[in-house]
Design a protein that fits this description.
Rossmann fold; single chain; globular; 44% helix; 2 domains; binds D-glutamic acid
Length: 234
């Protein structure tokens, strides 16, 4: 039986991570689980999210996944600790808002865009406290944005985005942290509203971490051509 890197998200968001993992590890088989049934994660309770993500992890383990990538900031910031406790034998890699990356670069005014649940997550607030220093970090909760990206109605998406970003158009913002994997797909749209900002996401860090974990656990597929399988919950 083939072994897989299991990657999941509530929808297409995690595909940006899948792409980077595939580039870096072309020999690996990947199973991408798109939990469309439970989209959006960003407005669910912690209890619901832990239940949902635990079921996905169990499902992926049954399908021979050797490592599980939580390709979702919401699920990572809210559930990663609980999942590690529940499945101590499993190797997890998650994605958190790239606050560290943004503050390490010389940006003074940083806007974090994320789902409501990520914005209020304890882990997110810790990340900000750990890295903030003297920088200004503004938090922008974006209800409905991941769903609008999934829906693909451009007009609706732009109306929502303009509305969400209206208070920041005339503010000095140097960098925007894309704190939801779905937002990687609307970089041009964000730039059309907030001109001259740098957009920062954590996808490259995640793929490097997947490689590192597989190396450390001696689980890398050294040869062969990897395949990608997609599973959806409907
Ligand atoms: N793509 C996810 C994230 O990174 C979640 C979007 C959602 O389902 O609300 O937060």
């Amino acid at each position: 039986m083939k072994d897989y890197i299991g990657i999941f998200d509530s929808g297409i968001g995690g595909l940006s991570i899948l792409e980077k993992v595939r580039e870096l590890l072309p020999n690996e088989n990947i199973l991408y689980y798109k939990d469309y049934k439970n989209l959006p994660y960003g407005n669910k309770s912690t209890k619901e999210l832990i239940e949902i993500t635990s079921n996905i992890v169990s499902n992926l383990l049954k399908r021979n996944c050797k490592i599980i990538v939580i390709a979702c900031n919401t699920a990572t910031t809210v559930c990663l600790e609980a999942l590690k406790e529940k499945y101590p034998e499993v190797i997890f890699v998650g994605v958190v808002p790239a606050i560290k990356l943004a503050t390490n670069d010389n940006y003074q005014n940083i806007l974090l865009m994320a789902t409501p649940k990520t914005i209020e997550a304890k882990r997110t607030l810790e990340l900000i406290e750990e890295n903030k220093g003297k920088k200004n970090i503004y938090l922008l909760s974006c209800p409905g944005l991941a769903e609008a990206i999934e829906e693909g109605n451009r007009e609706k998406l732009l109306t929502l985005l303009n509305n969400l970003l209206k208070d920041y158009k005339n503010k000095k913002i140097d960098a925007v942290v894309l704190g939801c994997t779905h937002y990687s797909f609307i970089k041009d749209e964000i730039k059309s509203i907030l001109k001259d900002v740098q957009l920062i996401d954590g996808t490259i860090g995640v793929s490097n971490n997947v490689k590192k974990q597989l190396e450390e656990h001696n689980l890398l597929n050294k040869d062969g051509k990897g395949e990608v399988l997609f599973l959806n919950s409907f």
